[in-house]
Structures are given as C-alpha cells and as structure tokens.
Design goal:
The protein is an alpha+beta fold. It contains three helices and eight strands. This is GNAT family N-acetyltransferase.
C-alpha cells in the first residue's frame, strides 16, 4: 500500500460518481455504523457548487474527509469531519483543517463540533459561540473562527 496522498479539494458539482460513493462510504462507516447517528447523512448539500469536499486517501480508499460549504447567508461552515478507524492518530484530519484554513481562513468559519472534540477545534482558533445542542443523537458545541484578516 502506498502512503497517503496530498489533500484532494473538489467542488460538489465536480465530483465523479466514484468520489461521491467514496465520500458516503467513509461517512457511513464513521457516523452511521460507529457513532450510530440517528439522522440521515445525505442532506442536499454535497453536490452543490457552494460545497467543497476535502480528503486524503490511500490504496484502501479515503482515510480522512471533511466538507466545507457556504450557507445562503454567505457563512462558511465545516462539517462531516471523519477519519477511517485504521487511519486515526496520524494527524490526517488536522491536515484537512489546515487546508481549509489556508484557503478560507481569512473569513468567518463556523462549525458544530462533537462536544468531546471542543479542544481539538480550539487548537485551530475556533471558540464556543453558543450553548451545546444535540444533533444526530450526539452532543455538539457551536464554534466559530473569526479569521485572520
């Protein structure tokens, strides 16, 4: 098996069918199977031109993934951060976060962090922006990063 590649950055409207399948495969494994989320993953955002998918892969498929998109109001959000179980602990999600911050870090970015990951996101400059909430049966913390203008 070859090593992990450089991050792939792809707009939702530029994804191939195979890429969509690989994305949904890692998200299904992490969110539906491991975390037993109780809400549908497919939400109508993935294929929009305002959605950008960022991932790393090896010969076995996607190792780490996230998506970022802008809302109708223009706010950039990060979500669906997932790393394959056998690829954890290698800093892969951190590489993806750095990719996002290099591209869009001069503006406001928001996310809903799973509560246990609050400190990890804080390491990228995100701060709590409200009260905890439940999403997909998991406690989350709203966070935002105001950018580095």
């Amino acid at each position: 098996m070859s090593g992990v590649q450089e991050p792939v950055v792809r707009r939702g409207d530029d994804l191939s069918a195979a890429e969509v399948y690989a994305i949904w495969r890692i998200r299904d494994a992490v969110f539906a199977v491991e975390q037993q989320c109780d809400e549908p993953d497919v939400d109508g955002v993935d294929l929009l031109p305002t959605c950008t998918h960022v991932w790393l892969a090896d010969d076995a498929g996607l190792t780490s993934y996230l998506r970022t998109f802008t809302t109708e109001s223009g706010l950039r959000k990060i979500g669906r951060v997932a790393t394959r179980a056998d690829a954890r602990g290698r800093g892969l999600s951190s590489r993806l976060m750095q990719t996002v911050l290099e591209r869009w870090g001069d503006g406001v970015i928001a996310l809903g962090a799973q509560a246990y990951l609050h400190d990890w996101y804080a390491g990228f400059g995100f701060v709590r922006s409200g009260e905890n909430f439940m999403e997909a049966g998991i406690e989350h913390v709203p966070m935002r990063r105001d950018g580095t203008r």
